[in-house]
């Protein structure tokens, strides 16, 4: 394992992080791979927050009048720098978050994609011109920069979620203040280095477009409470969202929340089972079940249930578990010991509620010492009990049977979360019904692909306890701007709307 | 005055309200015109709320699958019924809210306009089809009905604001639960009668599409807190919004807030003063200064300040104040005695902060006894002091001078509210700067028209303490729906986004 | 039959057509029902065309500055008048075009629908505000009225197609000059009466918003050639379009062409055959096969071919053929004797090319004398021969078999026309493939509904020899406006785009 | 001058053009700078055209199913290659088209900008999902690739116009067949080399995505007439467009025409004259008056006319004319002798029609021998005579006076062309009126910037004899795709639109 740490050090160096930045700090960063300390980084003092807000406000005043296509050029350069740093940053994601190589690289690719998308947006940011009811009047609505954006991100997508927010926010004219997870400060620091390279090439950006808050919950609290930060984009648990949202609401700020998911797949009798198996395994065990979009609930037509479960068990039995940086590994470690215990507790609860567990044991052979490696678990449940309705951030897949499609839909919707969902079926009626107003109640609903792995072109986010926010594609950029409705009277008359008369 | 009450009774009867509904209840409804009791209506028991929510939920399940153009037909019929009832409902608005005749009718016209607009929307509700990065895949986003909508409205637009919400919500597939102001239950009850006529002609609408909550704050609280009501659209004071928003946020509901405004007009040296005077008087004294978009702050270039103030004083001196239903009246009563006292207190504070008050006295001659009639006030201020930054719901116009346009813009933005704003100028540079990213920070910004009297085609609402909601035109309808992002794989392959590989 | 004529006269009278208008003219109007003369109407002299154009131009100058929502009010009133005249106008469509009652009424309903839609549009007509690359600059695009629109319509939709064009054109600010088919001047004259009622209620519309050209091809030619008419919307045969398009193109006018269709249905092995049969019969024999969207080609999977054909023959055998105004009739007359002969010629050709014809005979029993009544024909073909690729405006359905779905798609696309198409399948892969970039090449492509009977909310029109025009819903309204791109510089600087330097 | 030619050779080499390609051909390429032969290139034989079309068709079949974001990647790479080749390609534009250095580089920058824009589009290409009137039905419209696009470009923007078309067409899924001007084949050949570099890096593009037609009008004719090329985008003279458009129309192809402009500026009494002078000079003499958007008509308020003309003459007198590659040059050569003679003829005609000419003489001192260098001309006209209404592709500026703004607007619109236009004014009423439905009738209308130098974010093109096409930004991409309207029935019912009944 020493090698890995050494390589991690080398990568950190290549990404521009200095020894001074990586040592002597109060925040210990451990790799989920083997639990070793990768660095001890310096925390942002809470006392500095006022200065942070002041810098962001000043940066906003300058940045908002920079033409959007010029702001887009900064993001284009950021995309170039990310392309150049892809391998290193991807590897660092593996070290710090425990993802397998392909997923670490995929996450960086997602950053690159959003930069391309935001670059295009920078010549759009379309508002509307609107027909006015009054002669000699013109109406339009314009989207203007809104102010500094606070981004709170989670360990499991330590860099992509930031980039979704930052690429859009910066193109929209807003500076960013980023509070990454305490578990993943290094990837955040690396992103800032990469961003600074882009800024240097760009030339005349105001200082303070991106500020990093390294540390714990007190920083997040200060960020969330600040009137200087009109927009808070927070990714994490429902519990966190439930704390954050009212504080922001009370000060009339805007929240973009990406909270818990408890994502299901319905497998219909006509499904292509071979595809379904691959989709299920990727969705349920990818990132060791620690995606907000991980598949957690499998709702299978009873006619194919036994067959499908058998196939899944076979696939699960052969999954390569271990060092995520090793070639061929598909299941890496959980992020920490607490996660491992949470998984064990959930499996216990599931058994208590009538479930039969397959897998779910600790793995100690052939895996790096010091990491928390678990067998992904398949749990056959008699119904959708309490534990099934609870999000456990671990590779647990609950399996339930159904007979009629309406029953399956009802089960799909009968959880408090509303992020992602999917159906496997070759029957167009089932597929369409799943996507209809009476179908899935989630923000994401797919057909014949799993619930995870969204493209950046669509809006990402979910309903109910997932928090209702939308990021990434479509018109999610509007969440980073303020809308203004304008009526311009170029006549010499003063007609009132709705035919009101008021002659003085 | 007896006549008026008699006519009110007659109008109530024509609008279908029965004696049983108007008498014997615990909620006394007084007319601002003369303070007489118009009716004693029955309050909705808090104990009934669960049944209300259950009816709304059942109605939602049925209504969401009714095709939107068919839902639009209901709103078309509502528009027809409103056209038929325009004079009566307009008059009732005058009696119950104290508006002058033209404004009462204008409010009903606004209801009609939004019905026409919503009818058109009912064949749109456009989502997007989106280019997918994967072969054999299709992406789209669809907007689905979201669930019951709680509408909390204020006394000053007792019917229009409901119609903005109801027309869109119903076309979008959502039932409505309406809690009108305690001061204006009669107009709400009349609206429900009108709505029921439309429903009867429509034929097969589910029961419970519109439910009325008559009574006080406890009903509002129950509404706001209910998980059965995913969307709360609340119009009222900032104080109210600050109480409502966190409650809704904590349960991950969505708020559409239309709160306080403190709206300014900048008058530049090139302004058409004759037009400006007319716009100022209408915006500042219309609805007796009780619009959320009423003009409250006048920021005048010092070169024309004296001239403009003199013209305004002359116009104010000649304003017909009195019975709002009498021909020619431009200024009716304040809604109640508390409002009169608040106005007096504000004027006193303004004087204490260095202001010079013109007008602002109680009017007792030639006005109906029992109402609170005030002279609209012009207050020349040495600067934008505390009281100027406070919204007082009364016809007070604070006047401040400026020298440079940037200074004027800064004053315009230097209040906590962010609803409406305008500039009077013939200089295109000033006009455009006012509308630019560095211009007005309000949700509405106009040129050469006052801050009030928006057309329904634009999105209505404001920033900062105004609450950030948008109603009426543009894509405000999206606030009443849930967005779903779909990816459909019709190939026999299973490629992952971002090029991720995961081969089991 | 006397009764019918009498009723026709009564209906014409109810629709406001006077004896003077209906008699003494040079254009004889015969009913397809029994060939009797319904009226002799007066033709527009070609010599009047200059005056027509002058009136349209003058009307345009006035109408273009009337606010669009006000223009929408005219269309709302038109919708009301159409609702009031629905039964009469529907009946007149039956008399003059030979449609069955339900289709005549459906056509009027379509007119009503488009009025509702256009009313909503009248507060939209959205252009864009666009991010500019230059500081102190604002970009937007606006849609402006374009000028008089020439509408050339065909006998088979004598009123709906006009309304699609007129409702949009008038809301967009453009007057309309309408040249209906020589075969159906009466319904056009009735529409003008209805329109005039709306205009009268509207109040202050300029004269000449709608002008009718009654007569033959010379009027159409003058219309098409006129520089005063920037937009020509022409519905009819491909031959007509091929003549019109180059003339308009040479004078840089815009064409909206709705020409021939040769619409196919693919029926896959998983199709719901019971539904397919009903869809096929309606699409193939509705309007006696005289819709541009009529189903003409049936491409059936060989495994179900025999079964499907047997079911169709059974259904065809029981079709009630006769007086379209009689209760229960599903198949009315062809429009004239030439159409009957064209059908017979096509069937003969089909036989010569290897086809086996079922039905297709003249019907003389139980049908009104003087009309051309034909049995709808099913022709089983060995392949897609020449006659199959030719549009014959009659109820002929060619049936071909296929084995692989790609083969079926290729047959679907292998005709010169490109209007409408559909697939019946419960297999989502087939459904999606049909709608994919490599699927149907038509402007309309449906799943599990026939090719005809589009809703007005979508854009209507087709590719290839169909002419490429789009009418009705979506953003088809843009075809009636001109787009203007605006850049406004409100700074005191003069930066050039693309960083060009040019310092004098 | 020898140096220049040598450098040209070096640049051609750097751009990858080989001696074999540059010599021995039948098409002589001369530099406008000094008339020397830059190369003798090989013409595409007309006999090859069928193969060209076949390759394009094959490429289309493959390219249309490549996901659009992947197609966008090719354009991103093209943008990178253009960035790398910017100086060389810009210089070649100067040599081959005679543009000054800054304009040559600006043209390449425009290519880069459109690549960025198209890259963003590649994850959009948005169609709509649309509310259906029928239960259990779903409507949407999708944009699909349309087929090979023929691009005909002119000498004056030898590369940018191609890139506008190619970037959009390729992202939209369409191969491109490019026929550049006979005068500028070298820049086209260089572009193909650059494109091939991008293709090589891309990896798996089908062969034939970009094909070049080198030669004369017969190639253009074959291109325009081919059924294999559904879209023709042609830039050039009105005369050319008038020939092309009917041919394409007759075969139901689509034209995107960018033809003649005769662009005016209105200068109002409040205008910032210092800015106006700079804008006028750049717009009128930039690219030696050979832009389609060049300023040709100056409509000046009579109160400032003398002053403005005097300032212009002073500025014109000091213009550096000569070798466009020399530092400081603002006016380079006309493209050829014919252009020089056309300019002289126009000036003569202007004088005959009452004009007074300033400048307009041949320049022979201090300019490279062999080129056609002309003094830009200012011609004061008594009114808008025939020659003023004619586009002469040379630096002639006609000046006319006006008194009322309506008069100025009428003059602005009273020419057959309709490309670009602008007003200089600080008066917001004039500015807005100019942009209103009754204002400029051009496709482009600007305020306080000249008529030329559009940003790529807006749609580019014009009305009337300009041909009506739109390229570049906004939704111009739709011109390269086909629209398909889909209705999907996922119910087991078969309701008909408009409530039609047809029960068999």
TrEMBL record, chains A, B, C, D:
SUPFAM superfamilies registered for this protein in UniProt: ALDH-like (SSF53720)
GO MF annotation list: aldehyde dehydrogenase (NAD+) activity
EC number: 1.2.1.3
Catalytic center residues: 258
Keywords, sorted A to Z: NAD, Oxidoreductase
Family of this protein: Belongs to the aldehyde dehydrogenase family.
Subunit structure: Homotetramer.
UniProt-recorded name of the protein: aldehyde dehydrogenase (NAD(+))
Native source organism of the sequence: Ruegeria arenilitoris
Organismal lineage: Bacteria, Pseudomonadati, Pseudomonadota, Alphaproteobacteria, Rhodobacterales
Gene behind this protein: gabD
